[in-house]
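Chapter review. Work through the record for Cellobiose transport system permease protein before attempting the end-of-chapter questions.
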Amino acid sequence: MSKTNRKVQLTISKTFVYALLAIASFLAIFPFYWMFVMATNNNSAINKVPPAIIPGAELVTNFSNVINTIDFFGAIWNSVIVATLATLGVLFLCSLAGFAFAKLDFKGKNILFVAILVTMMIPPQLGLIPQYIIITKLGWLNDLKAIIVPGLIDAFGIFWMRQYISSNVPDELVDAARIDGCSTFRVYWNITVPIIIPAFATLAIIKFMYIWNDFLWPLVVLRDQASFTIQVALRGLIDNYVRDNGMILSGTFWATVPLIIVFLLLNKLFISSLTEGAVKS
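Structure tokens for Cellobiose transport system permease protein:
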């Protein structure tokens, strides 16, 4: 095959790949753009045929209606507290457990790890009633602790950290640290943690998004409007008689912005963790 034909084939292949990436990007971004368009229009513009496809002039009005209807900023602050503390707890506890399963030898390690994996197959709704009883006994109803504490440990987080540490922290490095007199926790903190920063970023994004978007459990344990997280507070935008879609989508749009910020901040580390090992020989 001549060089010219190879160049033509390579050009066609690149064009095809770029076209697929462009289509996929459009499909991924369009729902968010459509939500923004609806957040900037009133009901008449949203419901007309064909619907509006460019942003309108009602962004400030719709958001003002959101603020006047619910305690939007208070709910956002509650969600930030809950999601941040739960995520930090998961990063520390799950990485510590993952390190133990990956690098320590103790009796029943494999059985315990399998038991943790089995819990991932159980729908969380099945634990709703016993978890509610425990929270009631502790007196944590209508308190953010009722959301933070149950979210401090995560079976997927333990599995993810165990796999990442097993693949990226050499046993020789751990043995060398022990020979130098490092304790088990110091091996974890000074040797393992700096290596698994990309894994932290991936788990942080997943856990933060999960806690931020959680609706059922906060709805069950939070009663006072002052303690509502943003997903529970957004429910107050839906009226039984008059449905203002522009206001509802405005609240939803601005409630999504913190998630985008978190993803952008951790994006490079997230990609690094997913591609780790792809360039290894």
